[in-house]
Amino acid sequence: MASSSRGWNKFSESPLNPWLKKHLASVNIERPSPIQLQLIQAIMSPDGKRIRRNIFGCSPTGTGKTLSYVLPVLHFLTQDIRPYFALILAPTRELAYQIYQIITILTGSTSKDGSSTMIKTLLLIGGGKTGLPSNETELMGFWSGKPNIVVATPGKLAEQLTRKNFSDHTGHRSALRFDFLILDEADLLIGPTFANQLKTILDAIDEHGSGKTRQTLVLSATLTSALEQLQKIFSSDDEDSKPVTINLLPTIDEVKQQVSSNPNLDQRYIICPEAMKPAYLVQALSDIPFKQTIIFCSSTRQAVLLHKLMINLGFDEAEVSCHPVLLVGSKDQKGRLKSLEKFKSVKSRVMIATGGLAGRGLDLPQVDLVVQYNCPTNPVDYIHRVGRTCRKIDFEAGKTRTPIAASKYYGKSILFITQYDVDLLKTIENFVNIRLTEENQIDINNITNILKPVAIALKDAELSLIEEEQMNR
Questions:
Q1: Taking every annotated instance into account, which residue ranges of this chain make up the domain Helicase C-terminal (predicted)?
Q2: Which of 67, 217, 237, 418 could form a disulfide with 274 if both were Cys (CB 3.0 to 4.6 A apart)?
Q3: In this structure, is residue 397 part of a structural domain?
């Protein structure tokens, strides 16, 4: 594990470029998280010089992995401004867009020395406009502008690299000698889904030997057997060339302990008949105070239905001010990013999502209520979803290994239980070694009054969804 005691514990004391430290101070980021401190110190000497070591960094979602590599990349880039300096790959469009936003926030303001304004970043994710041209001619114009940093999903980048006219706009492929290759959520990137695309990318950027000098940073929130195998491939007999491993992942026992002992995490359940779940959910959202909530559904269809139900019941109206958004894979890319942006800016207070899209990489720190509309069959899924609240970490208190170690931030989790889920509830309780408390803040007596309007709104939602499904066949 990399050392974390090399002379600085505040960004103001770090060897980072002054304009970066100024930007961090302007957004009240004073102290690095453990992954930020250890990764930066692993590749940057106390006097700001580069240490060329490959890095394997594992840390839970929400602990600041993006800044851990963006800051040193920007620092070294300003010392050597040139095209195609860093390539950042992410498995999902949402995560790639989030990384792109962080970079543009840090580089977007004008500084007197001009450092930040000289940096060009290209986002390649496809699927509609996201702040860059989607028109192919305009996109090639971006390539010909020779960006310093490219943030991409593997599919879109591989498509661009294999285009017949690609070299016409960028010059010979030798131009793509990236100094940094960063794999974010690498456990997903090196899986079978992206294997062919990743090979295409590596073949293209290594065509003229850049792989021998390139520095690779591998980041993940999960340590898988595939990542361990990748570590062996990068390993070297030369002690000075061995990759640095930074493993801040909690063990499953540590996570279970955090879930069971965190006094700021209120874990509850609502038990109700399956047919009455929509009415109970509506009543719960009306009675339980929250800033933002994520409602996890087991399927895309169910998430779409609940979203339509809430719109039909007026949750999007000004007096309710919930403005629910939908984050599911079937939604087009422009719609997904619009939903995510609306939720992250707190213009929406309710996100309805499937576990996959809302579960990895996304930074949503304002969530103080997690609703699991379906009882997960795997207790580990319960833990990961519960971990979506209490996301702020008390680094100064030394609680560094899991995102639900906060001491100042409170959250509530509600698990919906039907007559078919009692055994699953017992399994979850035994796994985390606590007994969940039945939710007592909802007006049970009023549920009978809203059953009819909820049923009508749900029927309208089902008819609307069926019509959409038929149109898309």
A1: 280-448
A2: 418
A3: no
